Amino acid sequence: MSNQSLSQNLQKIANYWVPPILWCLVIFLFSSHPTGRTSTIDWQDFAVKKLAHIAEYGILASLLYRAFRKTNFNRARSAFYSLLITVGYGMSDEIHQMFTPGREPRARDVIFDTIGALLAVTILWKILPKAPKKLLSWAEKLGVA
User: Fold this and answer.
1) How many helices and strands in the chain, by DSSP H and E?
2) Helix or strand or coil: residue 46?
3) What are the tens digits of pLDDT across the range 95-134?
4) Do residues 141 and 72 touch, judged by C-beta distance below 8 A?
């Protein structure tokens, strides 16, 4: 392998694999602290926290999908592996919370994590290819189309 191809491979890793790894670190750090209430109204507190799960794991699945696509996986494999890793990470996060004071693991959180991952991958795989050209052009620049 030449120095130029090694440099290109390292650049590809930095551009596409570092972001999901950093996002996993962000999730881990958030899970390392006790959660407070977001509202005094129970249903609002529940909604905010579960929407946060959907968003953070949707972002993770999107970043993983992008990384797999840019390392020459087809769309189906990229979607499958992104979902598998995201759900697995959601499960490991709940295990992590078993050992975090002020946190407790909940299976329903993994369900919300999975919903976020499924939504993100569905948008990237099924909906984005049918998007208007301007949006598709923007997605291509971000590396998700």
Assistant:
1) 6, 0
2) helix
3) 999 999 988 899 999 999 999 999 999 999 888 888 888 8
4) no
CA distance 52 to 38: 11
b/e burial code for range 34-70 (CB count within 10 A of at least 16 → b): eeeeeeeeeeeeeeeebeebbebbbbbbbbbbbbbbe
Scan for tokens 């030449």, then name that residue: 2
Q: What is the model's pLDDT at position 138? A: 83
Query: Considering the entire predicted model, what is its pTM?
Result: 0.90
Phi, psi of 87 (to 5 degrees): -65, -40
Distance between CA atoms of residues 16 and 71, nearest Å:
8
Separation CA 78–CA 140 (nearest Å): 16
Q: Quick one: tokens of 80? A: 């499958």
Q: In the chain, what is the straight-line distance between the N-terminal and C-terminal CA atoms, in Å? A: 29
Per-domain residue ranges of the chain: 3-142
